[in-house]
Amino acid sequence: MTVYRLVLWDVDHTLIVSGGLGGEISRAAFLKVTGVRQVYTPDVSGRTERAILAESCRLHSLDPDDYSFGDYADALAEGYLTRLAELRERGHALPGAATALEALAKVDGLRQTVVSGNVRRVAETKLAVFGLDRHLDFGIGGYAEDSDVRADLVRAAHRRALDADGLDYGIGEVLVIGDTPGDVDAARTAGAAVLGLSTGRSSGLDLLAAGADATLTTLADTETFLALVADGISAR
User: Fold this and answer.
1) pTM
2) Residue 48 vs residues 20, 183, 216: alpha-carbon distances, Å
3) Cα 202 from chain centroid (whole Å)
4) H/E stretch holding 202
5) Residue 114's beta-bridge partner residues?
6) Low-confidence residues of the chain: pLDDT under 50
7) How far apart are CA 138 and CA 143, in angstroms?
8) Which CATH code fits 6-18+91-231?
9) Where are the beta strands (DSSP E) in the chain?
10) Minimal CA–CA distance to 69: which of 97, 83, 50?
11) How many CA atoms lie within 13 A of 155 on its CB side?
């Protein structure tokens, strides 16, 4: 049985939805940074904002190296801060998210943070708006600032947790929870276990085919969720 020491949560469509506001803010940030109105939108599912900016540039015949990701990250963070009320109105926490976070917070020796394609400030803002930030240690998370390769974010969070705690445990004691094949692939590539949630666009079968150890359709059944995590999902 694997006892998990670190749980890494995805944000969008795993814990919250933004009601379409995220796309609007991303397009506004792209315009602000490049001066070009975004006409073509890349597939954003399971990808990092760094990778999304680069592909958006290429789709508009722009050289990604001509634009600062830091400026884009700032524009995204500002966009969410200026539209907090709208985010609260249009978005929501997914069923069972708050209870699942609280339940894991009571498990001895287990820490929770975020591994997200969002920049850190955006991830913090999204989760705080819906009251889901209390049990998450954002300082040890993995974010778009770290890399455009999602598996690197899992590795970064694991490394930060070890450094922060002064502990030494393997990546196999890390559990990623996400809703896309990209989340699954990142966990698998890094060597972590992964629980897929079919709360986004991907079905449970899609997530299992991508390599998820197990899947759930919702976090609302807290007892089943907690038992699954506490009993240990066998990493491959």
Assistant:
1) 0.92
2) 17, 11, 24
3) 15
4) none
5) 9
6) 234-236
7) 10
8) 3.40.50.1000
9) 6-9, 16-17, 92-93, 111-114, 174-178, 193-197, 214-216
10) 50
11) 13
What's the pLDDT tens digit per position in 220-235? 999 999 988 876 664 4
- 211/140 Cα distance (integer angstroms): 25
Of 199, 171, 195, 173, residue with least CA distance to 183: 195
Residue among 179, 219, 200 at smallest CA distance from 95: 219
User: Which amino acid does the sequence have at 205?
Assistant: L
Which is it for strands 92-93 and 214-216: parallel, antiparallel or unpaired? unpaired
Radius of gyration of the CA atoms of the chain, in A:
17
Distance CA 31, CA 20 (A): 18
Q: Are 218 and 95 in contact (CB under 8 A)?
A: yes
3-state secondary structure of 36: coil
Residue at 146: amino acid letter: D
